[in-house]
Every structure is written in structure tokens, then in C-alpha cells.
Design brief:
Elements: H1 2-42, H2 46-82, H3 85-91, H4 96-99, H5 101-137, E1 143-147, E2 150-155, E3 158-166, E4 171-181, E5 185-197, E6 202-205, E7 208-211, E8 218-219, E9 226-227, H6 249-261, H7 267-278, H8 282-295, H9 303-329, H10 335-355
Antiparallel strand pairs: 1-2, 2-3, 3-4, 4-5, 5-6, 5-7, 6-9, 7-8
Helix pairs in contact: 1-2, 1-5, 2-5, 2-8, 2-9, 5-8, 6-7, 7-10, 8-9, 8-10, 9-10
């Protein structure tokens, strides 16, 4: 039995390696085609350009691994079925479920590896890629960085710190502007609880201004609201919208704590926090769901069918995941339920399908 297990696992890993390399190559090719004009105009050195694309690979790898795992499970077992190897195993009185346990183990290991990559590799690689992009491809853009204390942005008005961005609703919260004198010396500090985009400018509410020369704070909210100087529209912040998603679990948790201390709603971020562990488990779930499909009676191992079934299962998961994430971020369901429900649903489906595998 050990020989059979090794044979099935090696077939699975071989196809998995091919699919991962193929998908990553396609993603990188598309990225290169989209960026080639900018790269040529920017004069970016070849080594820097190569590094830019290499830094993109970990995030792409994490993104495409579930469908690659699913496709590998379907094709590897499908090929064995086509060559009557599965039939021979059953005819020999061997329990088929015991034989395919290495695939389930591989799914768990892959999920753990993706969690590690997302926590230790993707954030660092994404920051490197963003740094190259800001330097070579967006020289005229504002200088900004996103961290556990929110967004820091320097422009002609001074230095902004924005605790929370909700670009879907065009709202900024927890705004602090440090106005500077010549020589980079702080002149005053303007704080605002919230700012809304009116189509042309950001109108702030709850504004106060403190002169940094020992004077006492005083309200400085003119009639009609205070216009935040030097800020463009929501599109200026579009590259920062998902910056918190590139944080690892520890960084995002600290960011959420900072927001909670100041009384901001963190529901949206809690969904993403829990998702950092629930979403990588989809690699195991794809094996759990894919194996019964591959072993169903009368199945053929055609590539087109394998791709079609993989897309169907993955697309179904993505729809449910997106719906739950949206409901969680809206506060309709608890954040932890929004992150866990898609996994639990597909695990239940996988267990049900496994129970109907014919021995």
C-alpha cells in the first residue's frame, strides 16, 4: 500500500508543480504586457525590472494555489482512473480512501505553507515591489506609506496621518495634518474626526487646530466645513485601499487595536484578520472536494473537463467567500462567521462527497 500511496502522491505533486508554474507564468506574462510601456519609458534597469516581477510572485503564488491544487487532484486521479489503476486498486481489496490520504495530508501542508508565505514573505515582497513602483513608475505621485498607525502622506500642505480609509463610501477618519514651516519644522497641527468627498474636495468635520508654539487649542471650523488642503480624490488613495491586506497577522492586529483605542469601527478589518487563517485552508478544502469528483464512477480524465470542474468549484467558493466577506464587513454577520462559513460549508460538502465514494 505504501508504494501505491507514494505513486499517487508523486503524480499529484508532479501535476501540481506544472500547474503552479504555468499559472504563475501566465500571471507574470499578463503583468509584463500591462507594464512594458511604463517600464521602457521609466528607464528602469533590467535587474530592477526583474526584481520587481520576482517580488510579485509570492502574492500570485498564494492567490492561484487553490485552483492549482484542485486541478492537480482532479487530473492526477483522473489519469490513474483512465489507466484503470483505480479499478485495480479496488479489485485488490484495498480501501481507496486510505490510499488517497496522502493527498489530504498534502493539502494540509500546502495550506500551512501558504499561511507562512502570507505572513513572512508576501508583506516584505509587496513592500519591495511598491518601493520600486513608486521610484520608477509613479515618480509624480504623493509619497505615502501605510502601517499600524494608518496612512502617512506628505504633500504640499504638510504631513497627513489618516487612521482609516473607506474609499467605497469616500470617507476618511481620524485625520491629522502637520503644517510645516521652511526647514521641515512643524508650525501647527490640524485634527479632524472625519472628512467626506463632495466630488471636488474633502470636507472635514470636528476640526481643531493647535499652533505648535505653546498656544492653547482652538476650534477652527469655518462655516460650511473645513477643506483639507493638498488632497486629491478617492482615486489618489486607490493604491492604499488594500495596503492593510498586505500586512501580516501581527501587524494587522496591532493596527486594529490602534483603531479600537480611538473608538473607530474595525469590523471591516476583523474580517480580513480572521481571513488570514481561514482563506489559506481552501487549499486543503479543494483536495477534500476535488478527490470525490475525480473518483466518481464513469469519470474521464480529459484536461478540458478537469479545468471546467476546477473553475466551477473554485468559482462557487469565490462567490460564497465574497458574499460572506461583504456581509461581514457590513456588520450583518459576525466577522469570524464571515471568515469561517465558506470553509465550513465546503468542508461539509467534501465530507458528504467522501461518504459516497464507492469502495
Amino acid at each position: 500500500m505504501q508504494i501505491i500511496k507514494k505513486h499517487i502522491l508523486s503524480e499529484f505533486l508532479r501535476i501540481l508543480a506544472l500547474t503552479l508554474v504555468g499559472f504563475v507564468a501566465i500571471f507574470m506574462l499578463v503583468e509584463f504586457v500591462e507594464k512594458v510601456d511604463e517600464l521602457l519609458k521609466s528607464g528602469m534597469p533590467f535587474a530592477t525590472a526583474a526584481g520587481y516581477f520576482i517580488y510579485k510572485v509570492p502574492a500570485v503564488f498564494s492567490l492561484i494555489s487553490p485552483i492549482a491544487v484542485l486541478l492537480a487532484a482532479l487530473l492526477s486521479l483522473g489519469i490513474l482512473s483512465k489507466h484503470a489503476e483505480i479499478t485495480s486498486i479496488k479489485a485488490g481489496g484495498i480501501n481507496i480512501i486510505k490510499v488517497i490520504t496522502p493527498l489530504l495530508t498534502a493539502g494540509i501542508i500546502i495550506s500551512a505553507c501558504i499561511i507562512f508565505i502570507n505572513e513572512a514573505v508576501v508583506p516584505a515582497a509587496s513592500k519591495k515591489a511598491d518601493s520600486i513602483e513608486r521610484k520608477w513608475l509613479k515618480k509624480k505621485s504623493s509619497i505615502g506609506s501605510f502601517g499600524i498607525h494608518g496612512l502617512w502622506l506628505k504633500n504640499r500642505a504638510g504631513i497627513y496621518n489618516i487612521k482609516k480609509l473607506d474609499l467605497d463610501e469616500a470617507i476618511l477618519e481620524g485625520i491629522t495634518l502637520y503644517e510645516l514651516r521652511e526647514g521641515f519644522e512643524a508650525e501647527s497641527r490640524i485634527t479632524a474626526k472625519r472628512a467626506d468627498w463632495d466630488g471636488n474636495v474633502w470636507i472635514a468635520e470636528g476640526v481643531s487646530r493647535i499652533l505648535l508654539d505653546g498656544s492653547t487649542p482652538r476650534e477652527d471650523t469655518p462655516t460650511g466645513g473645513f477643506v483639507l488642503p493638498g488632497l486629491g480624490g478617492p482615486e489618489e488613495f486607490s493604491s492604499k485601499k488594500a495596503s492593510h491586506e498586505s500586512m501580516n497577522f501581527k501587524e494587522l492586529k496591532r493596527y486594529i487595536r490602534e483603531l479600537e483605542k480611538e473608538g473607530y469601527d474595525t469590523t471591516r478589518y476583523l474580517v480580513d484578520l480572521y481571513g488570514k487563517f481561514s482563506f489559506p485552508l481552501v487549499n486543503f478544502i479543494m483536495v477534500l472536494v476535488g478527490v470525490p469528483f475525480a473518483l466518481r464512477p464513469g469519470r474521464r480524465s480529459g484536461l478540458a473537463e478537469g479545468v471546467a470542474v476546477s473553475v466551477l468549484i473554485a468559482f462557487s467558493f469565490w462567490i460564497i467567500f465574497a458574499i460572506c466577506r461583504s456581509l461581514g464587513q457590513s456588520g450583518i454577520i459576525a466577522p469570524i462567521a464571515a471568515a469561517a462559513f465558506p470553509d465550513l460549508l465546503f468542508i461539509a460538502i467534501g465530507i458528504y462527497l467522501f461518504s459516497h465514494i464507492k469502495q
